[in-house]
Structure formats: C-alpha cells, structure tokens
Backbone:
C-alpha cells in the first residue's frame, strides 16, 4: 500500500494544529518544524486567506536520497522516505537538493531532520500526528491504490485532488507524492449592488 | 546552505583547488615537456610545488570537514552512496589525489604518478562541480556554467601558485633558464586568459549581482589583470606574482561565497513562498 499526504485547502483554516501536533510528538527544537503552514497565493478575485500545510512530499525520485553521500535516506515500499539520523554527517546537501525545503538542518545537533510520516505509528494502524491533530479534517493520509483518505474526522474518497499548486516547484524535479484539494471560489455578496431598504 | 556564504567550506575548497591546479599544470608540463622534468631547475620547482601543495591540500581537507555537522567518521561514511552521490565521488577523488601527492613527493614522481595526480585532482574538481550543476532545485547552479566556474578556479589559482615558484627560480637564476622561462610564459598567458574567462562566466552565469560582485570584480579580476600585464616587462616578477596570487585567492573566495550566498531555490510564486 502506497501512502501520501493530502491537504484540503478548502477546509484548512491555518490554525497550525498540524505543526503543533508534530512538534509535540517529536519534541523538536525551536527552529525545527517538520511541517509548516504558510499562506498560499491570494486570488484577487477571491480575497480570502488560503493556507497550505506542507511537510515532506515523500517523492518518487527523492533528491535528498540521491544526493546523500552516506545513504542516510531510504524509501520504504509504502513510499515513505525515511532519514536515519545516525548516518547523517550534516553535510546539508539534502537541504539544498530538496525543492520543498523539507529537510531542515539544526546547527545545535549538526544533523538534518525531516518528516517521516510517523511511519512507526502508521505501521501500528494509527494516523500521523499531524493528520490526527487537524481539528477540521483538512489534512489526510491517502492510500494511493484505493484512493481512500483517512483524516481525523473519518474516512472517505478524495474528490478532485490535484498533484501540484502554483506556489510549489515543478513536479518534474522529484515527482512528489503530495495531493491537494483546491479551495472552492467563495461567493462574494455585494450589499452596495443591492442596497437594503 | 543556500543564502549562506559557507566560508568554512569555501576557504578550504579554494586552497584545495589551488593545490590541485598547481600540481595538475606541473604534471602537464612534465608529461609534455621532457626538458622541464630533467632540468635541475625543473626538478627543484617540482619538489617545492608538490611539497607545499601536499601540505595545503592536507590541511584544507581537514579544515573542510568543519563545515559538516558531524565531521568525525564522515570520511568512512562518505562512500556509502557512491553510485548516486557526487559528493561521495568528490570525497574519494580528493583522498586519492592526496595519496598520489604524498606518493609523488616520497618517490620523486614518475610519469605514471604525474598522470594519476592530474587525473584524480581533475576528477575531484569535476565531481565537486557536478554536485551543484545537477541540482535542479537551485536554478543558479544547475547547468554548465557551474562546471566552467570550478574548472576556471582550479586552473587559474593553480597557474598563479605555480608561477610563484617559477618566478622565484627565474629571479634566483637570472638570465635565460630554458624550461623555466617557457613554463612561466605558459602560466602567465593562462592566467590572463582565465581571468578573462572568470569574468565571462561570472556575468553569464548570473552571478553579476549582490554586494560581493563589485569587490570580486575589482580585487579578483581587474587588478590582477593589470598586474599581470605589468609583470610582462618587469625584471623581477616575484612581487607581481605574489600580488596576483593573493588577489586571485581573495577574488575566488568572494566568487565562491557569492555562488552559495546568492543562489535561491526554485521560485514559489505569489506570496506563498515557503522561504
């Protein structure tokens, strides 16, 4: 079974609970966030805040893995790219090679850190911390084969998921395995067009 | 790494490239000019260049380890991903280059040793360049300009370093010293050509911006070029060569620091940039 993260921009409110859940799970240092939430490109025709929650794309052709001189990265059968801290010499090549900036270097420990989709929890039939920590079910774990999406609010199929967003680098670089559900355009009500009274 | 000048990596690498370049050109002269290798002056220059290059290369390789988060054990772990990692190959070729330098110094150096020294040194530079030229995530690095930059750096600094010892022999020997004069003529022309090459690659490679560009242009390109032309008519060329070498080293350090500091990852678009 191959897994990937799927993020529903239509549901996401940018609360950063996913970031906090992950941080709480791994007790990462202040400067290290496996997951980040950032505002997406605002549409002038749809002036609402959009947020993208981003961790590691667990790419099919992970640049981190191909550039690592010590084979600290491995790709599991389920697609999760794992980083073995013990093999890391802190050369920082992966931090540059990754188009998404997922691996982060800590000058304190001299090692690189990265999201690993909580593979130990997933192997125990649990959800990654970020997914289970999302209060609105915007973040999910998707089974590529069946299309089933598991979120904190239940399971279902993903409707109209896309594999890229304008804010992100070209997929041709590493063939990332993230998916997104784009935000539906909001209906804008103009009271001055139809004055009341 | 991106956005950071990475001086703990840049400075040792520049000195390492200088020692590779000097021994590369020395080996080239030895293999292509039989007179150089057998003349007493040529042998003396050879010993001096190899000795100092060996010291500089050894110290630089140790110093370069300090840019790693965990330098201890890095050498033993660096070759685990050789089929895919250019960094692994670079580390291997640097090690082989140093071994060939030591062997050259201890054995007096033959043609085969010279060839090994040239090949391992040249490959160390090339594989180092490949690390960055293959990095699609950094548009400023991806492409042949990066390889050209690295090649120019090692040959330029190598020629300047080698010239120092050649100029020293010319100053001591006085008059015409056949192979030494010929070798010095070659390195002088190479220096001028490569300084111009460095300017072209810097501008065409998109590195003609940022606060480091003007100091690099003045210290690393313009002034050395002027001194090189002045050296042509000077009797004692040693002060000129020293000046050129120091300025070129400073210029190349600035250039390489600029290479790291001014590159940015592939654009994200809109105001949703990740960085």
Residues:
């Amino acid at each position: 079974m191959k897994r990937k993260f799927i993020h529903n921009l239509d549901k996401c409110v940018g609360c950063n609970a996913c970031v906090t859940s992950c941080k709480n799970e791994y007790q990462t240092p202040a400067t290290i966030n496996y997951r980040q939430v950032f505002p997406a490109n605002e549409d002038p025709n749809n002036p609402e805040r959009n947020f993208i929650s981003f961790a590691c794309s667990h790419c099919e052709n992970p640049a981190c893995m191909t550039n690592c001189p010590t084979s600290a990265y491995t790709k599991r059968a389920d697609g999760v790219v794992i980083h073995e801290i013990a093999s890391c010499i802190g050369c920082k090549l992966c931090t540059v090679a990754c188009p998404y900036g997922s691996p982060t270097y800590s000058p304190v420990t001299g090692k690189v850190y990265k999201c690993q989709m909580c593979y130990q929890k997933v192997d125990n039939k649990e959800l990654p911390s970020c997914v289970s920590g999302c209060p609105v079910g915007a973040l999910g774990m998707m089974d590529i084969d069946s299309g089933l999406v598991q979120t904190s609010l239940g399971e279902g199929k993903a409707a109209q998921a896309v594999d890229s967003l304008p804010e992100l680098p070209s997929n041709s670089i590493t063939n990332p395995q993230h998916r997104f559900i784009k935000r539906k355009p909001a209906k804008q009500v103009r009271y001055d067009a139809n004055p009341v009274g | 790494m991106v956005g950071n000048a990475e001086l703990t990596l840049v400075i040792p690498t520049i000195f390492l490239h200088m020692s590779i370049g000097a021994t590369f050109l020395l080996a080239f002269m030895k293999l292509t000019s039989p007179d150089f290798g057998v003349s007493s002056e040529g042998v003396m220059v050879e010993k001096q260049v190899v000795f100092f290059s060996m010291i500089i290369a050894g110290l630089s390789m140790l110093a370069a380890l300090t840019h790693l988060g965990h330098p201890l054990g890095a050498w033993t772990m660096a070759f685990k991903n050789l089929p895919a990692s250019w960094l692994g190959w670079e580390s291997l070729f640097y090690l082989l280059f140093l071994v060939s330098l030591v062997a050259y110094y201890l054995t007096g150096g033959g043609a085969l040793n010279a060839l090994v020294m040239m090949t391992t040194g040249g490959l160390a530079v090339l594989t180092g360049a490949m690390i960055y030229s293959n990095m699609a995530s950094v548009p400023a690095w991806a492409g042949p300009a990066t390889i050209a930059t690295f090649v120019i750096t090692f040959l330029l600094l190598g020629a300047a370093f080698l010239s120092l010892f050649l100029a020293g022999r010319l100053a001591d020997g006085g008059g015409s010293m056949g192979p030494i004069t010929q070798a010095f003529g070659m390195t002088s022309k190479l220096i001028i050509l490569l300084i111009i090459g460095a300017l072209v690659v810097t501008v065409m490679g998109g590195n003609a911006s940022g606060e480091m560009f003007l100091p690099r242009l003045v210290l690393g390109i313009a002034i050395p070029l002027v001194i090189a032309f002045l050296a042509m008519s000077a009797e004692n060329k040693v002060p000129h060569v020293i000046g050129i070498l120091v300025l070129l080293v400073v210029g190349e350090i600035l250039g390489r620091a600029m290479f790291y500091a001014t590159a940015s990852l592939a654009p994200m678009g809109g105001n949703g940039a990740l960085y």
